[in-house]
Amino acid sequence: MERTSSIRRKAMARQHKTEVMIAGEQLRMRLHDGKLIKDRRHHLRTYPNCFVAQELIDWLVSHKEALDRATAVCLMQHLMDHDIVHHVCDKSPEFKDAKLLYRFRKDDGTFPFNTEVKIFMRGQQLYEKDQTNSSKRSILTLKDGLIRDYL
């Protein structure tokens, strides 16, 4: 009985982490499309693929992704707690509604990969490739009773 509840807790934690990763990736893609993520200069240094926290909070509230600024900060803190977003210099573990630069770890290659994350990222790559493909073909085909990836 105790073992079953432990397995259930682990499964729920894994599902929550997956949901956070998906939400973070969807947000990252929308911010790239909205041109909020870009190279920025600060103190004679260029930081590639980053965003200003204050601008992001404004965007989240104006696009009704968060009810208010405090909620938006909590959402971003949650992404920081799951190592999806970080301060460009990794100075602060706390997300602040200020003119500070943050970046998605996927954009700078510092995302901590384990087997689950690698599987998720491969699925995301396949999805993005399918979205950019103009023809309406399926990613998977059935050949000789086996599903094969033909990308």
Automatic annotation (TrEMBL):
SUPFAM superfamilies per record: Winged helix' DNA-binding domain
Pfam family membership, one: DEP
Location of the DEP domain: 23-106
PANTHER family: DEP DOMAIN PROTEIN, DEP DOMAIN-CONTAINING MTOR-INTERACTING PROTEIN
Descriptive protein name: DEP domain-containing protein
Organism this protein belongs to: Ataeniobius toweri
